[in-house]
Amino acid sequence: MAAALLGLGSCNEMNLEPKGQLDEGVLFNSESGVRKYFTILYSDMPIEDLCYKYAGDGKGYVNSRSAGWHTGNVWEPQKGYGSTVAAETTGRGNDDMGGQWGYWPYDRIRDVNVFINNFPAYKDFYTEARFNELMAEARFIRAFYYFALAKRYGGVPIVAEVQDPTAEISTLQLPRSTEYDTWMFIHDDLQFAMDNGASARTADALSRGSRWSAAALMAKSMLWAASVAKYNQYTGITGEATDAGLMGIDPSYAKDFYKYAYDACKFISDGGFTLHTGADKEKAYTEIFIADCSADEDIFVKHYGSDVVVNWNSGLYSSYDSMTLPLGTGLAQNVGCAIQGVWEMVNLYEHPAISVENPDGTHSPIYFNRLEDFWDTPEMEPRCRANFFFSGMTEPASGTVIDMQSGVYKQFPGTCEDAAPEDSNGENEYHKANRVRASQPGTIQDVGGTAFKINGTHGYATGTGDEGYIYTGIGVRKYTNYNAPAEQRALHKSQQGWKVFRYGEILADWAEAAYELGLETGSDALKAEAFTYVNALRTRAGAHPHDMVSDPEDIGTELYGFPVDENLQYIRDERKRELCIENQGEWDQRRWRTAHSIYQNFWVHTLSGYYVISEGKYIYLNEANPHGRTLTFNKINYYEPIPGGEINKNPNLMRNDGY
To answer: Which residues have a Cβ under 8 Å from the Cβ of 599 and sit 6 or more positions away?
Structure first.
């Protein structure tokens, strides 16, 4: 506890001044003191946000006490790892899907347990309602930490009381609880928080744990538990930990967990939350991630900016704009394009076709008068334009037209397959005979006696490596700040916050829970209800509504090795469309137990735009990632290994099977 109280800087939205070392009696008898105590708990909360990275400092969650260049207001963001390993974007480094996190936050769990155990002694300083709200906030925080553990390891030790470090060591070496009991422990904390938490919906209130954020975490976590119960049986992983119930849940519990998730979504809807929308669908969707949407969509928000205090420094910033936008005046001042969009994600949205199938099964490109004709058309879903930049789009804050032409073809006599083999990014004889590229952006070059623009000022350029310029033809737009002045587009200057939970996610949760519950109970009404939530998302997105198929085909057995009908697959795809680049995709594919079937030396592809000189028009090709990174996921990685250092300290921690 003393260690916790020494680090009272905040890494999130709580605007607190550092107070040094304070004891429990000073902190717990006033609401301001409780806020100060909660600071470290929010500081280390496992929120996968703009500064989230796969591993390293903070074990995935860069926090205010990390050493070196991750400290305080000089955090370097690694946002997007989850999207790169879910084939939503591609990025720098190896897209390894099977890493070992070593995440074990029992120091913070102890701190929250100290509060839960000792705070009742100070009940007389509060009204009964406010006392319960603060206790509910603590239970929400504890559940958040346990959720981060359970989705990685399955069953973990449940510590609900404050342990005495001077006690006999054998009493401190707790074994792992079953995975079922771990998820139910999370459920019980969140149910208390839903029943007793604060209900205010101001921007400040929604930056702390409330009954609404508890319900959002309930929906998310119970969907995870339900998915494990239903689908983990298909992985074929066996062993001592599985037999002990530490990995996996009996399928009979799936219905209960889907119902918990369903009820939590309804709870939020009944609270008056709605989708943020407007007549301009593209504009409204971009506003969700930058504007204050506390009046409609926001449920739980982590703020950044100059008013946030972190580790005795004023201000919490990320480098998201500079890391994500391409280099250029008014755009990224440093690095640039650390993550880039991929065709696999864009192709899930409504958009014009870029090729036609020939009788022999090959494809020929469709010719466009402009590269802009791909996106500047009613055929393109506004939500897709809001999530990605395409060549010819104007970046709002700078007014810069993003130019991502990939090269020139002198003529295009063959098929798309000739120019873009499915699993190769090398230059072949067809390219040598017909294609012209340039090593630097914005190159003008003589081709056959005439000067042509070879590529765009923002990519693709063969000599710039994997940063600075866009090599996929798809820039990432989501979460880039359309209000940011140029000086904020440098390292450690971005101030946009992170929407931890929003109503769009709740509708995606609700659709999945309702349909799965309909499958479990045989209720066609519940299955039909799911598509009302799907179509609410699609209406806001400016997409066409989708009707449920009355007699759906099983498409999962061929794709994944177990049944998933086409309606459920559509619901999952809609979730991917709504939540892409929000560090959700990888986790969803883990809990659905589909990743090992999809990602085996899997190539992501580009949307490369070329000018064809002989035609005087443009084409798009889906080329394999030019930087050669593929994705592979193994079944063993649905669960991560219990950290070896913890097993060395506690021999009662059974290892997960396969490690």
So the answer is: 87, 97, 631, 632, 633
Buried/exposed code over 545-566 (b: 16+ C-beta within 10 A; e: otherwise): eeebeeeeeebbeeebebebbe
Give the relative orientation of helices 179-196 and 211-231 as an angle to the nearest 10 degrees: 160
Does 309 have pLDDT greater than 80? no
Q: How far is it, in rounded angstroms, from Cα 215 to Cα 193? A: 8
Match 């928080």 to its residue by tokens.
193
30 contact partners, CB below 8 Å, separation of at least 6:
125
Q: How far is residue 318's CA from residue 330's CA, in Å, rounded to a whole number?
A: 17
- Distance, CA of 556 to CA of 230 (rounded, Å): 14
> What are the residues facing 476 on neighbouring strands?
388
What confidence tens digit (pLDDT) does each residue in 565-614 have? 999 999 999 999 999 999 999 999 999 999 999 999 999 999 999 999 99
pLDDT at site 66: 45
- Please report which confidence band the pLDDT of residue 314 belongs to, taking 50, 70 and 90 as the band edges: low
User: What per-residue confidence (pLDDT) applies to 61?
Assistant: 62
394 strand-pairing partners: 401
Q: Report which secondary-structure segment, H or E, holds 501.
A: strand 498-502
Residue 163 is predicted with a pLDDT of: 93
pLDDT of 67 > 50? The answer is no
Q: Residue-wise over 94-117: b if at least 16 C-beta within 10 A, else e?
A: ebbbeeebbbbbbebbbbbbbbbe
DSSP string, 505-516: HHHHHHHHHHHH
Q: Which two tokens stand for residue 603?
A: 């190539």
Number of helices and strands (H, E) in the chain?
A: 24, 20
Using CA atoms, how far residue 159 sits from 108, 162, 391, 392, in Å, is: 11, 8, 53, 55
Between 654 and 305, name the one with better pLDDT: 654
Q: In residues, how long is the chain?
A: 659
Nearest alpha-carbon partner for 609 in 466, 440, 455: 455
Report yes or no: 44 and 108 within 8 Å, Cβ to Cβ: yes
Q: Each residue of 432-452: b (16+ CB within 10 Å) or e? A: eebbbbbeebbbeeeeeeeeb
Nearest-angstrom CA–CA distance, 376 and 368: 12
pTM across the whole model:
0.94
Q: For residue 500, what is the DSSP state?
A: E
Instruction: Return the sign of the alpha-carbon dihedral for residues 247, 521, 269, 191.
Output: negative
Beta-carbon contacts of residue 376 (< 8 Å; ≥ 6 apart): 370, 392
Look at residues 463, 467, 485, 472 and name the one whose alpha carbon lies nearest to residue 324. 467
pLDDT on residue 585: 94
d(CA 178, CA 531): 34
Average pLDDT score over the chain: 91
| DSSP alpha helix (H) spans, 381-523 | 382-387, 416-419, 429-434, 503-521
Task: Tell me the one-letter amino acid at 554.
Answer: D
Integer CA distances (angstroms), 578 to 140, 533, 543, 560, in order: 25, 12, 11, 23
Cis peptide before 460 (omega within 30 of 0): yes
Determine what percent of the chain is predicted with pLDDT higher than 70: 90
Q: Which residues of 1-35 are buried (b: 16+ CB within 10 A; e: fewer)?
A: eeebbebbbbbbbbebebeeeeebeebbeeeebbb
> Over 121-165, what HEC string results?
HHHHHCCHHHHHHHHHHHHHHHHHHHHHHHHHHCCCCCCCCCCCC
